[in-house]
Every structure is written in structure tokens, then in C-alpha cells.
Amino acid sequence: MNNPIRFLLFTSLFMWLSYSYMIFAIEREYMPEEFTLRYSFWHTVLTLTTLGGNFTPSTEIGKSVTIITALSGICLETVFVVTILENVALSHYQNIALNFLEKRDSENLEVMRAMSEANCKSCRGKTCYSHRPRQLSSLAA
Predict the structure, then answer these.
(1) Containing domain of residue 44, as a range?
(2) How many helices (H) and strands (E) does the chain have?
(3) For residues 1 and 36, is the Cβ–Cβ distance under 8 A?
(4) Do 79 and 124 reside in the same domain of the chain?
(5) Structural domain tally of the chain?
(6) CB atoms < 10 A from the CB of 19, how many?
């Protein structure tokens, strides 16, 4: 996919909805007051983000779904962090290329300054206002 963050957001939304409905369908017969659809959504959010919650499933299947949800949340959070780091940080080779370009540009700038000073007809060895910052920096050094 072209945009991995969008894919991860879609995947997490799909996981949230599917796990919420599964826990709701399993636990609503045994605990109808606690596991309404709203609370099952909240339970799944807390479990996917590995925070934990106030609701504990009473059936073995419900507990199994909650364990799978928690493990999926751990994997999902890890993939989110890795994806964000890959999209934000530069790779080793990108840093090498950036350093090369900066060095090349600074060398080109020095050559262009030297050429402009040599070709300046108004200065001819005297103080020239267009080269004054360069002359002052060479005096300071």
C-alpha cells in the first residue's frame, strides 16, 4: 500500500469492531447487564491498548477472545511505532546522501564566492560592499 499509516488505522478500526462484536455476541447471554454493545466497545478499546478494564468475561470463549484481543493489541502497537519511526526518521543511506549534498553545496558556494570576488570590477582589491561580510569574517579569523 502507498500509505501504511492509513492501512494501520483501517486495520485497527476493523479489529476494534470485530473483537467488540465477538465479545458482545459471546457474553451477552451470560452477563447482559455488563456486556452491552457500548460496554463491549469500551472493553475492546481498553484491551487493544493493553490498559485493561473493569469488565471480565465469564465464559472460557470470552476469556480466549480477550486474550487474543490483548495479544493483537500488543502487535498492533508495535507495528504502529515501527511504521511511524520508518516514516519519520531518515535511513542510514539517506543521511549519507544528505551529508554529501550539504558538503557539495557548501563547496560550490565557496567556489561561486571566489569567482564573484575575482570577477568584481568595482572592487579591484579595494573594500567592496558586496564582499564586505566575507572580508570581515576573514579579518576575524
Answers:
(1) 4-88
(2) 5, 0
(3) no
(4) no
(5) 2
(6) 24
CB 113 within 8 A of CB 120: no
- Calculate the dihedral angle through the C-alpha atoms of 104, 106, 112, 117, rounding to the nearest 10 degrees: -150
Global pTM value? 0.58
**pLDDT at position 18, please?**
93
**What single string gives the DSSP state of each residue in 87-136?**
HHSPPHHHHHHHHHHHHHHHHHHHHHHHHHHHH-TTTTTS--TTSHHHHH
Q: Do residues 15 and 31 lie in contact, with contact meaning Cβ atoms separated by under 8 Å?
A: no
- Is residue 74 located within the same domain as residue 111? no
Pair 120, 72 in one domain: no
Task: Supply the pLDDT for residue 135.
Answer: 44
CATH number reported for the structural domain that contains residue 34 in this entry:
1.10.287.70
Q: Residues 120-130: what's their mean pLDDT? A: 56
